[in-house]
Amino acid sequence: CKRTNSTDIFFKLDTTRKLMENILTYYCKRRSIKYMQGLNFVLAPFLKMLDNADDKKHDVIGPGAIFELYYAFVNKVLPNIYVDENFKSLQHSFKVFRLLLLYHDPQVCMVLDQNDIVPELYATPWFVTCFSRDLPLEALYILWDHYLLQLVTDQFPYQHYFVCVAILILKRDT
Hints:
Structural class: mainly alpha
């Protein structure tokens, strides 16, 4: 928990760290899994809602609601990422991701393949943290809102893969 958003004062507080540890422990016990890298970064934006509630512009949300939101989000948006200790499902996700990239932009895929740049080298944080480590909080909330709206209607359950592909396509000339 100490490495999670270490530049944010809220995450340096002992109460925040303890709450994060408690939620992660309970989550892992409830899912019958061991703690895995990335769970803390996915939890951080949910905990940040507690910090933002202090400005009294928002209704106060409690730790129990934070846990339930976090639990539901991980199960819906990242259903297979944290299911096995060896991240075998993550390896499968990378294969699907690479195939999507090959289909949508064969040139970028070919350049990456020719240089032995596999998705594990650049996309791991995208899949393990669902961009929570890379995006500003406001942008992350917008992206996650979009993910959740699509998932609620079961319209596009693999949209995260396509967002990752779109990032590479947008960055292809840089």
